[in-house]
Amino acid sequence: MYKRFFSLIIVLFITINIAYAQELEWMPDPNLRKTVREEMGVPEGVPITEVDIAKVVRLNVESMNITDLTGLERFVNLENIVANHNHIQDLHPLTRLRNLGDLHLNHNTISDISPLAGLVNLTALGLSHNTISDISPLAGLVNLTVLGLSHNTISDVSPLAGLVNLKSLWLWGNQIKDISPLASLVKLETLMLINNQIEDISPLVALTSLRELNVIQNWIVDLSPLRELTSIEILATGENPGSFVAECELPRPSVVPRIQDRTYPSIFGAWGSITDPDRPPVLPKLPWQEEHSAIVYYDIYLCCPEVPFNLKFKDTNAGVHLIGDFQAAKKRRDALLAFNPEAILLIQVRYYSAVKPDDYPENWPLWLRDENGDRIIHPLWGEAYVNFTLPEAQKWVIDQAKTIAACGLFDGIFLDHWSESQRLHGLRPIEAEHTARDKILQGIRAVVDDDFLIMVNTNEDKIPRWAEYVNGTFMQTYPILEIPFEDLTSLDQRVPLGYTHADIFEIEQTLIWSEEHFREPRINAVHGYGLVREQGDSPGNRRWMRLFTTMSLTLSDGYVAFDNYTVGIWYDFWEADLGTPVGEKAQSYENRDGLYIREYTNGWAVYNRSGKEQLIQLPGKAKGVASGLTGTEHTIPDLDGEIYLKSGLETSSTADINGDGVVNIQDLVIVANALGKVEPDVNGDGVVNIQDLVIVANAFE
Questions:
Q1: How far apart are CA 375 and CA 62, in angstroms?
Q2: If pLDDT is split at 50, 70 and 90, which confidence band does 667 have?
Q3: How many CB atoms lie within 10 A of CB 691?
Q4: Nearest to 602 by CA among 626, 623, 586
Q5: What is the Cα 490 distance to its own chain's centre?
Q6: pLDDT tens per residue, range 108-127
Q7: In the chain, N or C: fewer CB atoms in 10 Å?
Q8: CA distances from residue 484 to 237, 417, 499, 531 in whole angstroms, order as listed
Q9: Which of 449, 654, 672 is CA-nearest to residue 571?
Q10: Cβ-contact 556, 515 below 8 angstroms
């Protein structure tokens, strides 16, 4: 008897293991197996039978890290599946589940929904937060009443036209422009179309059953068709051109006092921001920002409508519009000016470059095309060029400027690549390019105020043809590159090696010319580049930074920008308070070629491009901001510059090593104990040495 009982146990054990092994084959995903067993109430180790499977009509496997639905094809009696928040891609196991009425697959990685085409009994389907672009398999699911397709990449909604029983449709965050196929969905009560590219909402007039409609963050200019939808109880239309056009007409503070009454040095920032942890954030982060923006420290900041105001350009049939929350943007601007009353904000107007190929459709009429009709795309920048010789393109540019000026949040515009050089790859005559530029600037000046600023990037060129229209140049200079620009195959290969004396002389001449010829109020900025292969605050980069800063201070009333093609750094050299100019611009020191000096209310700026080290004698005792040395005699290395603060006005912050607010013996001891090390390197020459001790000793209070 015992033998028989023991044999039965062995047989049962073998049977269970065989069943378990078979289960591994027909349902390979361990997380799905575990969840299915829990839903069915079948313990681990007990075989799942066909009888068990036939009883299952509902299945919730949400957030179980499931990747494979294989095995569910056996559960033909399923009526409801909830499988949100998994990693599901393949829906083929669901093909035979004809009894399904509710299916929820939100937050997965699904792109192909063709296996759902035969599930004609579905009444509720959730496919939001996937990667779906083709929704044609849904065309036959005529019993659907609820459909969620938000946050996919859908542009064509025509397959939905026959789903006439829909009452709730979610299409948030797609790429939809044409909503005319939705006009047949007359039973719709809830329609979510947030964050698409819709311009024309007149097809919605037919949806007389609508109770809730959300069309915020689209391109809609004319919202008047919605007046006919008298049944709507909840309506959201914000962040469309038609919603904000009146609110955008905000007052713009005059730029004249911010330019003429400012203190120096004045720092220019473009596109990026600084990454100095000592620069605390002033403005709160915008929703899409990963870190706080420190742009408030710049005296001129150039970028785009997104930074710092979270606005967007929208091109519509009615023209170019800025959209967004303008009242919130005004609060940010007011906070920025409260922190930095000298700040000026410019926004780039695209006319030739800075347009991505997918910003507009391939058949956009403004593209520059070659002899074969193909768009011209820059191999490094990935930008598709605009043919600005077209009258339509010129109107597009002028409309951008007009919109910016009317809004009042920005102080002016920026036009890149502006010179007499040929830009359109020989596809248009150079005379046509020049004439087009004439018309663009003349057209902009005709629709903006006199103190509305126009800055252009001339690089190192002079532009007498357009000087009367332009307030200044953003001179992006040309450093020597390890690989010539024309030979680059990637922007990562740009390795600046510095500048020759001849390069610097050419930059000087353009800066001096710009100070004499552009219209008032004048905002010239020189942009120098440092050494990529060194840290941003290395001695070499600090020297190039000082050179460009003091070049700007001695030769202009302008601004300076400096970086090394990577991240922006805020240099403590820029913290020196020179006050306002006293001396004239472009004055050589004792007629020495390439050596310039200029007095300010609080000190002097000295700039040396002479080819050799220079000794200067100041009329009064002053302290070098970089050197830390105090006296009347000072030595300036070649291709370098220095700011000297008059006695009693100099800052000793760099010598306050321990940050206790006073320079004393404790700071001297810290430096003495660090001799030969990298930090604290007071004068920035790369090593702690006797010179750093002298600087700290001279700063004793």
A1: 46
A2: confident
A3: 15
A4: 623
A5: 21
A6: 999 999 999 999 999 999 99
A7: N
A8: 51, 19, 14, 15
A9: 654
A10: yes
Residues counted in the chain: 701
What is the spatial distance between Cα 551 and Cα 214, in angstroms, rounded to a whole number? 55
Query: From 1.10.1330.10, 1.10.260.40, 3.30.70.2390, 1.10.510.10, which CATH number describes the 656-698 domain?
Result: 1.10.1330.10
Task: Give dist(CA 299, CA 606) in Å, integer.
Answer: 22
SS3 state of residue 641 = strand
Can you spell out the DSSP letters for 248-289?
T------SHHHHHT--BS-BEEESS-B--TTS---SPPPTT-
CATH number for the domain formed by residue range(s) 256-646: 3.20.20.70
Read off the pTM: 0.68
pLDDT in tens, 366-403: 999 999 999 999 888 889 999 999 999 999 999 999 99
Check if the beta carbon of residue 107 is closer than 8 Å to that of residue 150.
Answer: no
CATH numeric code, 2-244: 3.80.10.10
Structure tokens belonging to residue 61: 């496997």
Strand segments (E) across 63-101: 80-82
Give the pLDDT confidence score for residue 380 in this predicted structure.
86
User: In angstroms, how far is CA 341 from the centroid of its own chain?
Assistant: 25
Question: Is residue 320 predicted with pLDDT exceeding 90?
Answer: no
User: 502 in helix, strand or coil?
Assistant: helix
How far the first Cα of the chain sits from its last, in Å, is 104
Q: How many CA atoms lie within 13 A of 580 on its CB side?
A: 7
Return the SS3 of 395: helix
Amino acid sitting at position 11: V
Decide if 325 contacts 368 (C-beta within 8 A).
no
Q: Taking all residues of the chain, what is their mean pLDDT, rounded to a whole number?
A: 88
Q: Judge whether 555 and 508 are in contact, CB under 8 Å.
A: yes
Of residues 265, 116, 309, the one with CA closest to residue 581: 265
Q: For the chain, give every domain's residue range.
A: 2-244, 256-646, 656-698
DSSP symbols for 129-157: SS-----GGGTT-TT-SEEE--SS-----
